[in-house]
Specification:
The complex is a heterodimer of chains A (about 375) and B (about 550).
Chain A lengths: L4 H6 L4 H27 L4 H32 L6 H21 L1 E3 L4 E2 H4 L1 H28 L8 H22 L4 E2 L11 E6 L2 E6 H23 L1 H11 L1 H6 L4 H27 L1 E2 L5 H14 L4 H21 L7 H15 L15
Antiparallel strand pairs in A: 1-2, 3-6, 4-5
Chain B lengths: L1 H23 L2 H13 L10 H19 L8 H31 L13 H7 L5 H27 L2 H18 L2 H8 L6 H16 L2 H26 L8 H15 L10 H23 L4 H20 L4 H4 L5 E2 L5 E2 L2 E2 L3 H23 L2 H11 L1 H6 L4 H27 L1 E2 L6 H14 L4 H17 L7 H15 L8 H13 L4 H12 L2 H4 L2 H14 L1
Antiparallel strand pairs in B: 1-4, 2-3
Classes of the chains: A mainly alpha (about 375), B mainly alpha (about 550).
Chain lengths: ~375, ~550
């Protein structure tokens, strides 16, 4: 990636510039044409748009939580933690097993009441604790086994190692848990599909409890993380390491420890995101980490990688675009993923530093 | 003392986790059957073979013990045995605890399979060696502790003996000593002799398909297609250093061009294979070029993700209902008509095998010519340091585009052969796994090395075909292999000369070279047993260095 000034100086007719302009024109024309068509036809009323926006916002919040993990690690090691999605998947499975275990534990045989419904809040807390613990441990050991030996290797090397770790974890989950899709059992207060009803344009829009729960929890996690990074001693150490490892080490910061802790934090967030994903979407299997992982990475790039508020914003933004996009462009809903990837490509072409990212030095990008 | 305890505990923990993991994925059961099968016994498939399990556990225990008995100063027998025994004991204890838990659950009649698929009742019985919960767990414990201690002894006795040093030395000198025999010198001085191994390989490759049946021709044909793709990706990743995770996109372009243009189904164009062949290759190259234009300005990691995204986009697009009338949708393209040469249709696998071999030879030729050309040197310079390459006046963007397009063309060739041979192509033929397989074989074989790619393809695509029983664990092994290769041998199994020199250089910079000094001093001290080999071998190695 070059800074934008040099191609202009070098050649008047730069292939890249031309491609950029052509792509930009094509993109704008295509989007406005489709949008115009859809709006003119009036297939979707305001209630439908609201529905899309709400679901986008919820998914976006989860993306934001996962994206933080990418951004934190990228900020410190300048590498894409490819296996981050798999760490999230492990969190989702841990939460699932806690719920399953609590479901079979009947506390009140007379009403046939199990622990899950007798103490729903405690169950949820336990599930999150389990998910976050497992993911934290996974994050720490991932770094120790797959990345730490390669700290000073050329940049392609840890990336390949990360891809390997991702494949390994995914397939290990497939072999241990079987590729079958499982239904996440929620406590009855968080039954999927239940929620508050809002009347818009004479039709009901349901704001689900799981959605609100997921959204609120995500925001709380993001705020917590922001405070951790900006206001605590540890956060300062982390930022110092991100700035310059050698200098940080000279200042008496345990660089390895900080890197380990960064992976732990990103693992914790991924674990929470995994459990939320399970609670909200209801279906988990070994592959769930992959696509959200890539999308969260897209979100991190969208907001400016290495930038924490950027990742939050990027996540929300991506969630909404992805949810509204297929409808707005009037295309097949199967092509949701295509939209997310296209956004990634477009951002990288037109504004590689992301929405909030400043222009980084050559060493960092 | 403390140190050896700590070593033992660490190795024990690691190995217990490994063993439990292997049990949970059902690998121990499968491998025990495989071993039993190899030794020629009779067993009930699906229930595992206890002798096989004993062998595997013994080997794992020995390894764990050897790990626990890591070298330390002073290196005494007592410490080695203590380390090995601790390792085995801890490992056995954890495994036994796990076994007891599983056994109790099993005895209570709870079916674990909905949660952990592999933990069926038979699998748990198998893990307990068919002896009931308590006795089985104790046997596990005893076996692992015992083998751990033996492993420690072996590590001390064999691992650090003088034979190892002399073996390493002999291995190092083997190349020199064989090649400096008078016969070889004569052969080597002959001008045409350097072509001899190539001619041999060529002859074997050309004759081999005649003597192979349908099945093996098919399997080796698949390997050959992967070699083709690997050679293409080798240019992109190995030479130009661009990590492309969506390589399957070009494979898909080749396959679908061939499929759509020669099949009656969605489009109804039934052109001749030989017309489509160059068209599909060119079209794949063009796709590579067009995809390259926007993304090749990006730095490595971004490029990886973007190409990954592209690979997925292509698959999703091929699969989507919206494009069914153009691409056949999720059903794919059927009845692809194969090539016809001199009025003879290619009907069996052997014909395709020859076509694939021809393709590989062409691609190897192109690659070699490219490698030694200005373009190839540009790529290598770019891979090593992009900034410096740019400072040297290389238009990196243009060379990257070229690498991308050529790599895409090779993948297109692979894809069209694949589609035409299977007479079918569908979106699921072009999933992410193909990209990962190809990337794996390039990396395992050695980035930038042509023989490496071939070795990698045989290792990753051919071996699982031979070891059918454990093919479920193939992808898991790929993942682990990527990590392990990156840590232990980043230059690959059969590295190109330049690459291995680079990696060695990189490694030698950091640690001071104590190892070589140590090994020579041991070789001198170890006296009579090695004296037979040692003096001539050092002599030869010196001579060898002198000649070079």
């Amino acid at each position: 990636m070059e800074d934008s000034a040099s191609p202009r100086m070098r050649m008047p007719l730069d292939t890249y510039r031309i491609a950029q302009v052509i792509l930009g024109i094509l993109f704008v024309v295509f989007v406005s044409w489709r949008l115009f068509e859809v709006l003119k036809s009036g297939v979707y009323g305001p209630d439908t748009w609201l529905r899309f926006a709400i679901s986008g916002l919820i998914v976006g919040a989860v993306y934001a939580v996962i994206a933080i993990g990418y951004t934190l690690v990228y900020g410190i090691l300048f590498m894409i933690n490819f296996a981050h999605g798999e760490v999230m998947m492990m969190g989702a499975f841990s939460g699932y097993f806690v719920f399953e275990a609590l479901k079979t534990w009947v506390v009140d045989p007379s009403n046939n009441l199990n622990f899950l419904n007798a103490h729903p809040i405690l169950s949820i807390i336990l599930a999150f604790l389990a998910g976050m613990t497992v993911s934290t441990v996974a994050g720490i050991y991932l770094e120790r086994i797959a990345y730490r030996p390669l700290r000073n290797a050329p940049r392609l090397v840890p990336l390949i190692s990360a891809i390997g770790a991702s494949i390994f974890l995914q397939n290990a989950a497939q072999l241990i848990f079987s590729p079958q899709r499982r239904n996440y059992t929620n406590p009855s207060i968080l039954e999927r599909g239940n929620g508050w009803t809002v009347l818009v344009n004479n039709s009901k829009v349901i704001i689900t409890y799981t959605g609100v729960f997921t959204f609120v929890l995500s925001i709380l996690l993001l705020i917590g993380l922001f405070i951790l990074v900006q206001r605590t001693r540890f956060g300062r150490a982390m930022r110092a390491v991100a700035e310059n490892k050698q200098t940080a080490a000279l200042m008496g910061i345990n660089v390895d420890g900080v890197i380990s802790a960064t992976f732990a934090i990103s693992g914790t967030l991924a674990g929470a995101a995994g459990v939320m994903w399970g609670i909200h979407n209801g279906i988990i299997y070994h592959f769930i980490g992959f696509i959200p992982g890539i999308k969260a990475f897209t979100a991190a790039v969208l907001g400016g990688i290495g930038n924490i508020p950027g990742a939050m914003l990027g996540g929300m933004f991506l969630g909404i675009i992805e949810s509204i996009g297929p409808a707005a462009l009037g295309i097949d809903f199967q092509l949701k993923d295509v939209i997310a990837f296209s956004i990634l490509v477009l951002v990288l072409i037109f504004r590689p530093s992301g929405l909030l990212g400043e222009v980084l030095t050559e060493e960092k990008i | 003392m403390n140190q050896s305890l700590r070593n033992g505990l660490r190795a024990g923990t690691i190995f217990s986790i490994v063993i439990i993991f292997l049990v949970m994925i059902g690998f121990l059961l499968t491998i025990s059957e495989l071993i039993h099968d190899m030794l020629g016994g009779v067993f009930v498939p699906g229930e595992g073979s206890i002798p096989g399990l004993l062998i595997v556990l013994t080997l794992l225990g020995l390894w764990g013990g050897a790990m626990g008995a890591k070298r330390q100063e002073p290196d005494t027998w007592k410490r080695a045995i203590l380390g090995g025994f601790t390792s085995g004991l801890l490992c056995g204890f954890i495994v036994a605890t796990f076994a007891v838990i599983m056994g109790i659950i099993n005895e209570k009649g709870i079916d674990l399979r909905p949660y952990l698929t592999q933990m069926s009742s038979t699998a748990i019985d198998f893990m307990l060696l068919g002896q009931g919960t308590l006795l089985g767990a104790l046997l596990n414990l005893g076996l692992l502790a015992l083998t751990g201690a033996i492993g420690g002894i072996l590590a001390r006795g064999l691992g650090r003996g003088s034979w190892r040093v002399s073996f390493a030395q002999r291995r190092e000198n083997a190349g020199h000593s064989i090649s400096s025999l008078p016969v070889f010198k004569q052969v080597r001085n002959n001008r045409y002799a350097q072509y001899l191994p190539y001619a041999l390989v060529l002859m074997v490759t050309l004759l081999m398909p005649l003597y192979l049946g349908q099945y093996w021709n098919f399997t080796l044909g698949t390997v050959g297609i992967y070699v083709l793709m690997g050679l293409g990706l080798n240019i992109v990743v190995g030479m130009a250093g661009l990590l492309d995770l969506g390589y399957v996109a070009f494979f898909a372009v080749g396959a679908y061009t061939m499929g759509l243009m020669t099949s009656p189904q969605p489009l109804g164009i039934m052109w001749n294979f030989w017309i489509i062949l160059p068209m599909a290759v060119l079209f794949a190259a063009l796709t590579g070029f067009l995809l390259g234009i926007p993304v090749l300005r990006l730095r490595g990691d971004y490029l990886a993700i973007v190409t990954l995204g592209f690979g997925e986009i292509i698959r999703v697009l091929l699969k989507s209902d919206a494009l069914t009338q153009f691409t056949g949708g999720p059903q794919g393209v059927r009845d692809i008509s194969g090539p016809i040469l001199f009025g003879r249709p290619f009907s069996n696998e052997r014909d395709f095998m020859y076509l694939i071999i021809l393709g590989i030879m062409l691609v190897i030729f192109v690659t070699i010519r490219l490698q030694n050309s200005r373009v190839g040197r540009t790529w290598i310079a770019m891979r090593e340091d992009e900034t410096v390459a740019r400072a040297m006046g290389i238009d990196t963007y243009r060379s990257k585009l070229l690498a991308f397009a050529i790599g895409a063309a090779f993948a297109g060739l692979g894809g069209l052969l694949f589609a035409s041979r299977n007479q079918y192509t569908g979106p699921e033929d072009h999933n992410l796994l193909v990209s990962i397989n190809v990337l794996c074989l390039v990396i395992v074989g050695g980035m930038g090395s042509i023989p490496g790619v071939i070795v990698g393809a045989f290792a990753l695509k051919g071996l699982p075909e031979i070891l059918r029983q454990i093919s479920d664990y193939r992808i898991l092994a790929f993942g682990a292999l990527l990590v392990v290769m990156m840590i232990l041998r980043p230059e690959g199994l059969w590295p190109s000369k330049r690459r291995s020199l680079e990696v060695r250089h990189f490694e030698e910079e950091s640690p001071p070279q104590t190892v070589s000094q140590e090994s020579t001093s041991v070789a001198v001290a170890s006296g009579s047993s090695t004296s037979i080999d040692a003096p001539p071998s050092t002599d030869i190695s010196q001579k060898g260095r002198g000649i070079e």
